[in-house]
Structures are given as structure tokens and as C-alpha cells.
Amino acid sequence: MKVTLFATCLVDMFQSDVGKAVVEVLERLGCEIEFPESQICCGQPSYNSGYVEDTKNAMKRMITTFEDAEYVVSPSGSCAYMFHEYPHIFQGDPIWEPKAKSLAAKTYELTQFIVDVLQVEDVGAQLAGRATYHTSCHMTRLLGVKEAPMKLLKNVKGLEFSELSGKERCCGFGGTFSVKMGNISEQMVDEKVCNIEETGADIIIGADAGCLMNIGGRIDRKGKPIKVMHIAEVLNSR
Amino acid sequence: MNGMIQNRNVFLDKIANRLGRDRKTIVKRPEWAYHPQDEVLKNATQDELVDVLKEQCKNIHTDFVITNTAKLSDSLKEVVNRYGGGPVITWKDERFDQYGLTKLMKEEWPQDGVDLHVWNYTKKEENIEKANVANVGITISDITLAESGTAVLFSSKDKGRTVSFLPATSIIIIPKSSIVPRMTQAARIIREKVKSGEQVASCINFITGPSNSADIEMILVVGVHGPIKATYIVVEDL
Amino acid sequence: MAMKTSVEKFNDRVDKGLQDSFMRGAVSSAQERFQTRRLGAAEELGNWEEWRSHGEEIRQHVLDNLDYYLFELSENVSKRGGHVYFAQTAEEATSYIQNVVEKKNAKKIVKSKSMVTEEINLNAGLEKLGCEVIETDLGEYILQVGDHEPPSHIVVPALHKNKEQIRDVFKEKQGYKKTEKPEELALHAREKLRQEYLTADVGITGCNFAIAETGSITLVTNEGNADLVAALPKTQITVMGMERLVPTFEEMEVLVSLLTRSAVGQKLTSYITTLTGPKEGGDVDGPEEFHLVIVDNGRSDILGGEFQPILQCIRCAACVNACPVYRHVGGHSYGSIYSGPVGAVLSPLLGGYDDYKELPYASTLCGACTEACPVKIPLHELLHKHRQVIVEKEGRSPVSEKLLMKAFGLGASSPAMYKIGSKMASPVMSPFTNGNKISKGPGPLKAWTEAREFPAPNKERFRDWFKNRPKGGEQS
């Protein structure tokens, strides 16, 4: 199966290990991966800040980039959701709305793709440790991917789980919110890190680079001995 | 006499204008696409509804008594005693006689020194003064909602509103035949009356247990402005 | 108090909120309790999504036909002998009510909770006439006795105060002598207020839902205060926002069920009352005269536009209780009687961007509000629409942000620019980099690194690794 990877700009620039893990996991599951070089960013930072018109070129670029793809897979629920927003954003545009619709229809978040399309729940991963899982807001609420990550994680050998209290609550990232309202964001991520600590877990797993950068940055600043892992890295462990 | 209506046209014209059309003079109430309310306690028998009501009373801080017309007088007497006796105030309602309470009200209570005031509209304000100092207010439910544990009271000149609000405690007699699944059925009954040209009561109370508030530190206090305690006495009238 | 509750700047209000540890504790535990109850109440129905869809279709139908239903409502109120006044502005509403009060020569007025009367600053208008205006909702009474503090939550106005503070307010202002136990505090209020109901000349209520077909108004409380306000004084004035109505009793029933479950997790609250006109023929209790004041005050400007869905709101505060930002900053940070996500959408529409332009940004767009809303208002989308209006129509965004976003837009749409930018990221950031992290970031990163580390850009971008790796599934 041919999979076109939408790596996201955060992974490309800051978390290349996550991108590598995605490639390795999917290849192991028999996928052939391609990575179109012309991909940049889904446009959320400026779009979410209200610069809708200024973001349209970036979005059009992404639509064109993935035009010929069979499946578009992204290791970020939030960025994958953004592709699902495109038809809404280009509503009424005779050229771009249909193109946006076709992109949305073939775009999947990584775990969603593995579970729903590849129909795999056990990727044969193995990782010793006690973990907890952060459910990212956009992925769960907006993209509607709720079950897939836990289905996969439950089958990782050696991994124990503790429930994260307040797991439905936002970590305080919110893209530019984290700098625009830095003081509020700080309190939010601080509470999240406290909740993570309370679980006694030594690994925090997430499926969105933005949330993980936020949570990880706070864990690091507080000097907590908790490892931050993207779910792709967990699924790639053996 | 009809009341005055002021400033209406200019106000409604602006609304129509904002909605981008002329004023509407005919709107048919739509066939709604969803009917979730019909599923609640669908096909429940009258006995099952009594059980639901009894269970719900635990959630609403309300004592539940079930009795038949032969024993109603004793049950009522006992609850009034438990609440510390009179003064008692009741509606003027022929159902009290139908349920065999004449002897209690006309003979036993006077003999026992329980002060009883029966609502008498010709005495005007005196009724309210009596209600204000009453220890117990007794009313009869016109429709009863099993799901929420709610008594529906229709006001009239003989059925003063304040009987269920001003006394320190409240006893509501609930004819078993008056119990319906939920507010849906009550709303329909009321609407049928309206459609058949009957005038809707100037006050309809849907009363669910005693008055309460959680305005102070979210701690529940039972008994704020209205009754502090409440008992429902279900009468097997079927 | 008017809709605007503070003259302080947004950031100062937020700082104050963030430093108020009692308030934050109270808010977070209240949020958890409300959430648990709300979810429990939704779950036991088993078909909550259908309920929400039904609520949504009812509210949308009413808004689309608002002129018709308001006409029907006013006709039916009038037929039952009630007076109806349509007020386009806060001033019109207040002056009509002042007139009624003056004609009645009223000295004492009891009120039950009403957000719209707060919005139009009614109490001040009545006090100007020399009237004593008494709030009877326990939470609002506490705030009023305590020097007219603004509410911090739509459903629990005094959420930010603890019981010791409330005891002190009663002690200082009313010579209260008992303890801080909530039962004793409530009993004190009960005794005080009972006398007020019995001696008031006018009762003023809000309106949860008016019913067009019968000309009725519906009041929803747990305390029973609205019933006494409506039953005892000789004159009743009900003030409603113009969108708060339904076609018939049947739709009222559905919305009340959604409201009570979403607001407090109850199947129904203790007192739900529908009142139709003044009292009839022989009635002893109930008002002799009934006035319904229907208030626009900026609402019609919302109709027909992209923000219309906010008028579906039934004021349950489920979004407030779900909001992770409200959780930390509290209600007063919003500077409006309408706080939380609904406040962040509604306040700029009713009060203008001058006072409220920051509110739409006080959200991570996490969607918790949208998910909680019982009438399916897409709250986070409306917050985003505000941002778009602020940036694109109003041009109010800061120049530095505009430049940054322009640069981002260019970078994200031009591979050449992105290549330069992303390749340069690592060397450019290296002076700030310590190992694999940045602890003191420059420019916009500063706000980030105040609280957390920022990752250093990869030396080798993912795309470079991908291009250079040995092909054929053998991992590097």
C-alpha cells in the first residue's frame, strides 16, 4: 500500500526522530512511504490566529502537494484535522473546494490509519515501563479519533498503563496561544504535568507533536524524570 | 382586557431585515427531525413508574410514602406529626374529600389542636398570611413526572400558589393515576388543553423536592426560600 | 452593574485571577463536580446526542422565525391582560421599567436572577429613583450585600467567595452572629429575604424561556426565589432577551431538560414555573399587573450573520464548566457578566471589540466548549471567527504579529523560503541553544521559555534524513 507521509513542520524541524519512527512502523506494516518535498505546513499557526486569507496560499500548496496521493498519513491529529477543515475554508470556491474535499477524504492520523485502514491493532512493539497517555484535544474532539491509540498501546508488550486524571483537559498548547497568553498557558501545562506525575508513570505518550513539545518542555524545565514519547516512537520500540 | 403592546413593529421589522426577508405572518411548527424524549420510560407500566418515582425521591431529598385511600388519612396525619404538627394550610380541593380526608380535616385535627387553614379566596391576603406562618402546606399533584420526581400543580382561585412555597414543609399528595413518564407527557397534556380552547392556568408549578441551593462553596443546602422538607404521599387511586 | 464589570486591562485582570488561589481552587473543584454531574445526567439518557440535535433544531428554527414567534408571544401575553414592551436598547428597557415603577410609587423591589437585567444595568437605574432593589438568588444576594460585587459564574455567581468571606460580609453589613456553616448562612438569608418578598411593591424576574403559543414565561430555579418574587408583589415585570423563546410547551420542555441537565446535572431543578399573564379573577396570590419587557440591546445585529448561532445559547454554563482557560483565570478575568467561552463570543458582539478584543484569544480552541454545549453552538469556531474579524476586518492585530504571520504565510507557501528558514533555524538558534534545548528564547519565544524549554531545531531535518536514507525498507 502506498502511503504519502504528511510529516508536519514541527516533526520536520524539531522532532525528526518521530518522523523516522513513523516511516519505520509503516514500512514494517508493509507500506511503501513517499514524502513529497514540497510539503511545508498545514497553516494552523496563522489560520488559528485569524489570518485566514494570508494562510490560503499555504493551504493550496498542501492541497496540490498531496493531490496524487492514495492515502495521506500524519503523525499529528491536529494537523490531520486541519486538512479536514480545508473544505470548510474553501467552501464555495469552484476550484479549491472539490480538491480540498478529496484531500480530506484520504487524510488519516497515524493510529487511525493503522487501526481503521490497515486493520492492525498489534504492531508487535515492546517497551518496558509504566506509561500514561495524553489525549490531544483536536485529535479526539475534532478529528474524532478516540479509540485507536489505546487499542494499539494496549498491545505493546511490557507497557503498563495508569489513567491520567483530567485527561480530556487541554494541556495549554493551543499553538500561538502558548506565547500570546503565556501566563495562562503556563498554569495549564503545569496542572497537566502535575496530573502526569500523580499517575506515577515514567513515560508520557501523546500523538501530537505540539502538545508533546509543550508538556515535554514543562517536564524538562521542572526537571522531572518522565520520558516524553510520541506514540510512533512507542509503536516502533522493540 | 387586553394588555398594551408597545414598540412592536419597528422592533420586529429590524429582525426581519437582519434575517434578510419580509416579516413572516405564518410559520408552521415544524415536524422535528429528532424525538429523543419519547424514548424515556417508553412502555413503562403504572407500577414501574411508581418505582421510578420512589427511586428518584432519594435524589431529591424527598420522603416517599405509598398508601391507599383507606389509609391515606393515617399516613397524612403521621407525616404532619413528624413535621411537628400545625399550623397546616391546604388548598380548597374536592379531591381531599374524595380521598377520605374529610374526617381528618374537619374532626381529628381540630380535636388534636392542629390549626388548619383551607384556602379561601374570599379572604384574600389572609390566606398568604396563613401560608407564611404555616408549618405544613398540603397540595395535590395534578400531573406527576416519574423520571424527575416532579409534581405539577395548576393554580386557581382555590389553589393558591403560595401553599407550596411559604410553609416550612411541604406535603404533596400524588394520585397514582397522575403519574406519567416525564415532562414530555405533561407538556402534551397542557398543550391539548390549550388547543381545545381551555385557558392555561396563570401559574403552573413543576415542583421537584424541597427548595435548595449550592451557591455557597457548592455545598448543598436544602431549604432556602421555599420548604425545607418535603414528602410525597402516593395514593393508589386506580 | 452593566455588562462590563471592570475598567482594568485584560492582562491585569488575568494576573489577578491567576494569583487568587482560593478562587482557582473553588473553580477547579466546581468544574469537576459540574462536569461529573453533567456527564452523568447525559449518560443516563442514553441518547444525549439526539437530545442535543433536537435542542439545536428548535433553537435554530426559533431564530430563523424570530419575528413571527415574538409577535405571537406578544399577542398572547396581551390577550391574558399582560403588557408587552419591545425595547431596542438598554436605555429604552430601563426607562420603561422606571416608568412602571414610578407609576406604582414603588419603594421596594425584589428581583430574581436575570443576566439581561445585569446587562442593561437595571438596578442602578432603579436605585437612581430611590428604590431599594433586592436580589433574592442566594449567590447574588451575597454579592449584593457585599458591596455589589460582579458575578464570576453564570450559574453560581458567588463561586469565587468562600464561606468565611460570606460570613464576614453578613456580619459586617447585617450584624450576623452565627457561624460560617452554609446552612446557617442560608437560613439567615431566608429570614431576611422572606420579609422582603412580603413587603415588596414590585417583583422583577428574568425569563429562561417564553412560550409563544400561550404567552407564558418559564422560570427555572432550585431555591424557589423566582416564584416568591412573582407570587407576592402586586406588580411583576419580566425582562427577557429577545431570543429566549420557544414555540410551545413541548419545546419548552425539551430545552428545560437540556438546561437543567447541562447546568447542574439535575433531571429537573426544584422549581420550574410557567406564568401566564397577571393573576386571574379570584386568584389571591400572583401579580395584579404583569409587564413583559423584550430586550434587543445588540442582539438583532448578531442575527443573520456568521455569529447567529451564539443566540441559540440557553445560559447553562456547561461551556464555562468545561473550559480549561476559565478554570485558571476565573470569571472576573473576562471583564463581563458573561464569562467563559460563551462570554468570550458574546461580550465582543454586545459590548464591542474596544473592551473585549482579547477574549476570543483566551482559548486554545480545544473544543471542550463545543462538545459540552447542549444546543450545539460551535463555540470554538465562533471564537476563531472573531479572530478572523479582528485581524481581517478590523485590522486590530499588533503590527509585530502581522509581520510575523505574513512571514509565516510566505514561508509556509514557498518551498524556497521554507528551505532557507528551516535550514537556518538550527544555526540561527544555536547561540540560544544549550544542549538540545533553548531555555531563554528570543522574541516571541520568550513567552514560551518563561515556563518551559523549547526544543533546539534538528541539525538534520526529517526531510533530509528521508532523502538520504538507504532505500528499500532497511532502517538506518
TrEMBL record, chain A:
PANTHER family linked: LACTATE UTILIZATION PROTEIN A (PTHR30296:SF0), UNCHARACTERIZED PROTEIN YKGE (PTHR30296)
Stored InterPro entries: Cys_rich_dom, LutA
One Gene Ontology term from the biological process aspect of the record: lactate metabolic process
GO CC annotation: cytosol
Single annotated GO MF: oxidoreductase activity
Protein source organism: Peribacillus asahii
Family listed: Belongs to the LutA/YkgE family.
Top-level taxon of origin: Bacteria
Name assigned to this protein: Lactate utilization protein A
Transmembrane stretches, start-end: none
Domain Cysteine-rich: 3-83, 132-215
Automatic annotation (TrEMBL), chain B:
Pfam family, one: LUD_dom
UniProt domain LUD: residue ranges: 51-235
SUPFAM superfamilies, per the entry: NagB/RpiA/CoA transferase-like
Gene3D superfamilies for this protein: NagB/RpiA/CoA transferase-like
GO biological process: lactate metabolic process
Bilayer-crossing regions: none
Family label: Belongs to the LutC/YkgG family.
Record function comment: Is involved in L-lactate degradation and allows cells to grow with lactate as the sole carbon source.
PANTHER family named in the record: LACTATE UTILIZATION PROTEIN C
Name of this protein: Lactate utilization protein C
Organism field: Peribacillus asahii
From TrEMBL, chain C:
Binding site for [4Fe-4S] cluster 2: 323, 366, 369
Pfam families found in the cross-reference section: Fer4_8, LUD_dom, LutB_C
All residue ranges annotated as the Lactate utilization protein B C-terminal domain in the record: 384-469
PROSITE patterns noted in UniProt: 4FE4S_FER_1 (PS00198)
Keywords: 4Fe-4S, Electron transport, Iron, Iron-sulfur, Metal-binding, Repeat, Transport
Residues given in the record as [4Fe-4S] cluster 1 binding sites: 313, 316, 319, 373
GO BP field: lactate metabolic process
Biased segments, Basic and acidic residues type: 451-467
Domain LUD stretches: 72-295
InterPro entries assigned: 4Fe4S_Fe-S-bd, 4Fe4S_Fe_S_CS, FTHF_cligase-like_sf, Helical_ferredxn, LUD_dom, LutB, LutB/LldF, LutB_C
Family indicated by similarity: Belongs to the LutB/YkgF family.
Function according to Swiss-Prot or TrEMBL: Is involved in L-lactate degradation and allows cells to grow with lactate as the sole carbon source. Has probably a role as an electron transporter during oxidation of L-lactate.
Protein name as annotated: Lactate utilization protein B
Organism: Peribacillus asahii
